[in-house]
């Protein structure tokens, strides 16, 4: 099985008008200010990860006896591969165990925030942010609110 190209270094090289940061390959990434404040999307990713993913993958991306540590997994896969796994799921048969990641492509509580979850895990993968809720974060931009409402189908 061919392996996808690894992710680019996580350093943010550009920020768009919605406040999202991207790496050299144009994939979503995080930004941590010298005072420790994180960008809005990393903070949102923390919130979304802990509402949808931590039950299986453990708090703060650390893994569990049931599912792998996603903070380690994102070190070896790029955004496109991560996105594909989230959308379509994955099944691994090894060592007599059948491990299944369900397909979440129809779950708006995941898909509307998949970039956020990815950047949060990238920040955790290099210990750029500590475990737990980020102490401070940038404000949510109006464009981020607009995109969220559009994805969720809100009329606001």
TrEMBL record:
Residues 13-26, 135-156 have a biased composition (Basic and acidic residues). InterPro entries: C-typ_cyt_methanol_metab-rel, Cyt_c-like_dom_sf. It comes from Methylocapsa polymorpha. The lineage of its organism: Bacteria, Pseudomonadati, Pseudomonadota, Alphaproteobacteria, Hyphomicrobiales. Residues 1-26, 129-156 are annotated as: Disordered. Gene3D superfamilies: Cytochrome c-like domain. This is C-type cytochrome, methanol metabolism-related. It comes from the Bacteria. Transmembrane segments: none annotated.
């Amino acid at each position: 099985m061919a392996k996808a190209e690894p992710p680019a270094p996580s350093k943010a090289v550009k920020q768009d008008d919605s406040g999202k940061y991207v790496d050299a390959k144009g994939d979503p990434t995080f930004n941590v200010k010298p005072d420790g404040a994180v960008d809005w999307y990393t903070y949102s990713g923390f919130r979304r990860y802990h509402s949808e993913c931590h039950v299986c993958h453990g708090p703060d991306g650390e893994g569990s006896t049931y599912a792998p540590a996603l903070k380690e997994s994102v070190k070896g896969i790029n955004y496109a591969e991560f996105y594909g796994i989230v959308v379509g799921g994955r099944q691994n048969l090894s060592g007599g165990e059948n491990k299944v990641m369900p397909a979440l492509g129809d779950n708006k509580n995941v898909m509307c925030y998949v970039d956020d979850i990815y950047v949060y895990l990238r920040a955790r993968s290099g210990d750029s942010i500590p475990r737990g809720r980020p102490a401070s974060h940038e404000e949510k931009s109006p464009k981020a609110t607009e995109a969220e409402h559009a994805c969720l189908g809100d009329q606001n």
